[in-house]
Amino acid sequence: MEQGHVTEAEQVFREDLRFHPRNPWALIGLINVLKQKEGGCCSVSKEIEELDLQLTEQRAIEMADFEVKAACACCK
């Protein structure tokens, strides 16, 4: 995504979430991709809200011991 491959990054994060629906790294990655693509699109904004809610719910559980802020350690 940071190299401008936004469409490819979106596909990768969506595929990961298909197999691991509660993966917080893929969730934050997809949120970031969609924010980059947003451009005022209401459907994207709605999806971002839903993904943010999922991430918030994950952070609230007792087993969450740290907050995921990026899709991987190499992200800025």
Architecture blueprint of SSEs:
Elements: H1 6-19, H2 24-37, H3 42-60
Features:
76 residues; mainly alpha; 3 helices; 0% strand
Explain what you see.
The chain has 76 residues and is mainly alpha-helical. The protein has one domain (6-60). The protein is 62% helix and 0% strand. The chain has helices at 6-19, 24-37, 42-60. Helix 1 runs antiparallel to helix 2. The longest helix has 19 residues, at 42-60. It is globular, with a radius of gyration of 12 Å. It starts with 5 loop residues before the first helix and ends in a 16-residue tail after the last helix. The mean pLDDT is 80.
Coarse structural class: mainly alpha
Roughly what is the average pLDDT, rounded to an integer?
Answer: 80
Order of SSEs, N→C? Answer: HHH
Distance between the termini: 11 Å
- The Rg value, from CA coordinates, equals 12 Å
Oligomer: single chain
Largest sheet: none
Q: What low-confidence regions span 5 or more consecutive residues with pLDDT below 50?
A: none
In percent, how much strand structure appears in the residues?
under 5%
The helix tally amounts to 3
Helix content: 55-70%
Count of domain modules: 1
Overall geometric form: globular
